[in-house]
Each structure stands twice: as structure tokens, then as C-alpha cells.
């Protein structure tokens, strides 16, 4: 074996070890382990199962549905990838890094502080580094809580936690089945919803000193059409260079700190 081959094999072993260490905190593999996870009451982001459901997997599916946990059918190869070689028996669960709260809990935090609600809604942000950086921005700007969709969102993982520089531990996070329904709930509570997209009014022309929810989407897809139609305002950041968009965490920093400035001045 030449030196290059040896180094490559050593690198692969190290990479596999790091992956197993990475997932150990939030990935649960095996039928009994996943079933007990569901019954424990711990927050679960989603469950991946093999396409041919039978026996214990049907029990897991029923338990997950009763708790509103998304079930995703995948091929055996995907389960192998998620489990990093750990015996999975056809099922892998992604448990959250922390427990989620309800939207009402976030609104209660604002009331306890005597402040107008300030909430971030993350629509379809699948990259864990971007989600972590967004949560870090939200914490720095004084946001009371973040709302995520159960589907089409990166789960709260060790990567998200590290990318947030620990802000995940301090930020109340709600996870909802339907973002549009969540927005309607917020509106019933008196909040105004501002979506961040490229073709709206300039962000610094909006008065953010109001009960507020700011919607940020992925840089690839942006805000979904249905969510956008339920926004009260669309805020845009003028782009003066050759690229036509910013990373979502950069956009979040600009919008959220402008909102924080506006609210601080009025206060």
C-alpha cells in the first residue's frame, strides 16, 4: 500500500468517526430505540423509514402520526447514509437538539418583557449553517422567537447549534405543520407580517415599530407563493453590485437590525 492510499484510507476512517460523533446526539437508529424516543415525549424533527412498511415500522408510523412527526419513506441506501453504518433496521429518527415551544409561548415572552412581539419565520431554509447563522442574527437583534416548518427545513442539529454560536440554547423555537396557518394565527394576535423578497419596497422605508413577524426564505427558492400572499409588506434590500441576492443570514442581519433600530428609537 503506497503512502497516498494509506492517507486516503486514514482520512476516510477519520471522516466516518467524525460523522458518527456528529450524529450521536440527535440521530436515533433502530426500531425499539425510535419507538421509545417517540414515547419519551422528546422533540423529534422527522423519521426516515424504508419504503416497505411492515410490523414494528407500522407501529412507529402510527405513533409518529399521533405526535405530528413527519414520516419520510426513503431507500435503504439513504438510511445507511443517515446512520453512518449503525444498524438501523429500516428506520432512523432525527431528534431535535432542544425542545420546541408553542407560538403562544413566544407571544407570552414578549408580553412578560412589556415589548411588542418580534418574531422570525424561516421558510424553507434547508442548509443547517444558514439556519444557525439566522438564529444567531435573531438573538442579537432581540427577536422573541423563531418559527420553523415541520417539513422543508433543516432540523435543529449540532451543526445548527455550532453555526448559531450557541444562540439556539437561548432562542425559543416553534415548529409548525403549516406556515400559512401560523401566519394567520399571528395576525389574529395583532402582528404584522413582513416578507423579505427582491421586488418589494425598500426595507428602510418600512416602519418596523409594530407587533412584527419577519419572513425569510432560502436564497434559492425565496418565500413560498402562499406565504408571500399572506404577508402585509414585502421588504427588499437594494443590490448595487453584479449579484442579485444575499445569503439569507446576511439579509436577516440587515432587516432584523434595522427593525431593532426602528423599535429602539420609538421606544
How would you describe this structure to a colleague?
The protein is elongated. It folds into two domains: 3-95, 2-Layer Sandwich (60s Ribosomal Protein L30, Chain: A); 103-266, Alpha/beta knot (3-Layer(aba) Sandwich), CATH 3.40.1280. The protein has ten helices and ten strands. The model is unreliable at 1-24 (pLDDT under 50). It is α/β, with parallel strands linked by helices. Strand 6, helix 7 (158-163) and strand 7 (173-176) form a beta-alpha-beta unit. The termini are far apart. It has a six-stranded parallel sheet with strand order 7-6-5-9-8-10, with helices on both faces. It has a four-stranded mixed sheet with strand order 1-4-2-3.
In brief, what are we looking at here?
The protein has 10 helices and 10 strands. The protein is of the alpha/beta class. It folds into 2 domains: 3-95, 60s Ribosomal Protein L30, Chain: A, CATH 3.30.1330; 103-266, Alpha/beta knot.
